[in-house]
Write a structure and sequence with these properties.
It is a single chain. The chain is of the alpha/beta class. It folds into three domains: 80 residues, Orthogonal Bundle (Arc Repressor Mutant, subunit A); 110 residues, 3-Layer(aba) Sandwich (D-Maltodextrin-Binding Protein, domain 2); 97 residues, Periplasmic binding protein-like II (D-Maltodextrin-Binding Protein, domain 2). The protein is built from nine helices and twelve strands. The strands form three sheets. Strands 3, 4, 5, 6, 7, 10, 11 and 12 form an eight-stranded mixed beta sheet that branches. Helix 5 links the parallel strand 3 and strand 4. It starts with a helix and ends with a helix.
């Protein structure tokens, strides 16, 4: 089986359509289809099957994708071993980060890599944790976040490492009746109006936990994913919010610790399995871990 065709198969598993694979690999759709047909002949089994008006991987196709990951990872390791002989780590590493995590960590990570020979290219991707697998089609490292009670994203095609834990607090305006407190219970928040994030993100998971504890469905006035906008609305008195502790920037707002609820998000770095064998990627992962230790120690 040709390595290039295994790479085409993996791209199809990541992107889901022939057209998306063609665009990613700068090929024509017909060329992608032909490569997949040849690979099926080489494998001796059907790799794709109809799914309505589209096509999807068969069970055999899914199994071969896992082996393709292993083959391509082995090639990456071979490249990495040769890089050691060239006094690496060197090279470009593409990193996707959720925006508030990027704001917190990049000011520490980028200076640490400045003279390392590693060119880290960062992009902010405001997507829920479930999208990490898709992002790995375009990035070497994905910084994602999840509620600490949610399962890890780790699996046969994704390797993860927990970077840090960030508590989630209740954010209120300085003239709010609770502003003089340092801690608040879920029952005391049952009648509040909330400014929250879109569903699927860790902060919304904590809000649902509060609802389960109190038996009261939270009254959510707005759903916005920009924390600066949320802070502005809270300061203006439109409601209260849940906010990751290190993400708060507004100097006048009051943070209250939430009692009786496991309220935190975990920062998690996701890569392809064995990606850390590449010295450049290993250097980037180490820089993030050092930055996280520094932030949580403060």
């Amino acid at each position: 089986m040709a390595v290039d065709r295994l790479r085409v198969l993996r791209e199809f598993a990541d992107r889901g359509t022939i057209g998306a694979v063609a665009e990613a690999l700068s090929m024509t759709p017909s060329a992608v289809s032909q490569q997949l047909k040849v690979l099926a002949r080489e494998a001796g089994v059907q790799l794709l099957e109809p799914d309505g008006r589209r096509i999807r991987l068969t069970d055999a196709g899914h199994a071969l994708v896992v082996r393709a990951d292993e083959v391509l990872a082995a090639l990456d390791r071979a490249v990495a071993e040769m890089a050691h002989y060239r006094a690496s780590p060197r090279g470009r590493v593409r990193v996707a980060l959720f925006p508030s995590g990027a704001a917190l960590l990049l000011p520490h990570v980028l200076p640490a890599l400045a003279d390392s020979g590693v060119d880290m290219v960062a992009s902010d991707e405001d997507l829920p944790p479930s999208e990490a697998s898709r992002l790995l089609a375009d990035y070497d490292v994905v910084l994602t976040h999840r509620d600490e009670r949610a399962p890890s994203l780790a699996g046969p095609r994704i390797a993860t490492r927990v970077l840090m834990r960030e508590p989630t607090d209740v954010l209120v305006a300085p003239d709010h009746p609770l502003a003089g407190r340092t801690e608040v219970s879920p029952a005391e928040l049952a009648d509040e109006t909330w400014i929250s994030v879109r569903g699927g993100f860790p902060v919304d998971d904590v809000l649902r936990s509060i609802a389960n504890l109190t038996g009261v469905r939270p009254r959510i006035a707005q759903r916005l994913n920009d924390f600066r906008v949320i802070e502005t609305l809270v300061h203006s008195g439109y409601g209260i919010a849940l906010m990751p502790r290190f993400a708060v920037a507004h100097p006048d707002l009051v943070l209250l610790r939430l009692s009786g609820v496991r309220a935190a998000r975990l920062y998690e770095l996701a890569t392809r399995p064995h990606a850390e064998k590449r010295p450049a990627i290993a250097a980037v992962l180490a820089a993030f871990e050092t930055a996280a230790r520094r932030i949580t120690a403060d």
